[in-house]
Design brief:
Rossmann fold, ABC_carbohydrate_import_ATPase, transport, nucleotide-binding, alpha/beta, 258 residues, binds adenosine-5'-triphosphate, 27% strand, 9 helices
Length: 258
């Protein structure tokens, strides 16, 4: 990894829901071409942090920089325009629409005939066919099939394919392998590595410590709204990582006191 400028810089972020402080002075950097595991117990603040990055929540205090520029407005559309895509198990696809339509959701290509705009179905079908083959969907799956017909892993593949095709710069994967079979899980994880090797920043949220330790370059651990550790996976075994999470910040504090 070169010493390049971080793609995303989070500085001293605080976020309150009413009186509840969900993020406490969180600072963290993310670089392009990195796969970063974001872990921590339930309620640690992982989802809240990534919701700030994808423009769903505005921080109460602190700063976020994207590509060196301060983010002054937090809105999901702005985050998408900057190339930040979130892949969650249960959201992101409309079950009753075809794979092709889902692939282009919100970015539908248009043909103009006599100045009247028409959806370019041929383009949607052609591009999504290529991508669904490339991303490992079954041979008998057609771009005209409703996504309802797809397995969990195939649904994730459509979302990941979409992120690559639209040249996203950041893919946030929030528990992307929940409820998937072992084979599908491996496939989704291979796709995550593929995104990283294409130079994207991948932020991977999970409770599966052993899985993320194998995949990630770096692990950021959160606890009660705070970042309690940020370490490369080479510097910590999966067992040590699990212990840090189990003990909250206490193991880290002990290590720092030595
Ligand atoms: N919209 C909201 N309004 C009020 N409190 C919220 C809201 N969203 C999250 N919280 C609270 O903020 C804290 C952090 O939640 P968050 O979802 O970020 O945790 P998490 O680390 O992603 O947990 P999990 O692994 O269970 O998804 C929790 O105590 C949660 O109840």
């Amino acid at each position: 990894m070169t010493a390049q400028q971080p793609l995303i810089q989070v500085k001293n972020l605080d976020l309150f829901f009413g009186l509840f402080r969900a993020l406490k002075d969180v600072s963290v950097d993310f670089k392009s071409g990195e796969l970063v595991g974001l872990v921590g117990d339930n309620g640690a603040g992982k989802t809240t942090l990534i919701r700030v990055l994808c423009g769903i929540h505005a921080p109460t205090k602190g700063e976020v920089y994207f590509d060196g520029k301060r983010v002054t407005e937090f809105h999901p559309k702005l985050a998408i325009d900057q190339g930040i895509e979130t892949i969650q198990q249960s959201v992101g696809l409309c079950d009753n629409l075809s794979i092709a339509r889902n692939f282009y959701l919100g970015r539908e290509p248009v043909n103009r005939i006599l100045g009247i705009p028409f959806l370019d179905f041929r383009k949607m079908r052609d591009i999504s066919t290529r991508v669904i083959r490339e991303f490992g969907l079954r041979e008998n799956v057609s771009p005209d099939d409703e996504v309802e017909r797809l397995s969990g892993g195939e649904r994730q593949s459509v979302k990941i394919g979409r992120a690559v095709e639209f040249k996203n710069r950041v893919v946030i994967m929030d528990e992307p392998t929940n409820h998937l079979s072992v084979r599908e899980r491996e496939h989704v994880n291979e796709l995550a590595l593929q995104l990283r090797s294409q130079g994207l920043l991948v932020i991977y949220i999970t409770h599966d410590i052993f899985q993320v330790h194998k995949l990630a370059d770096r692990i950021v651990i959160m606890e009660n709204g705070e970042k309690i550790a940020d370490a490369s996976t080479d510097s910590m075994t999966a067992e040590e990582l699990e212990e840090v999470i189990r003990q909250g910040g206490r193991v880290v504090e002990k290590r720092e006191k030595k």
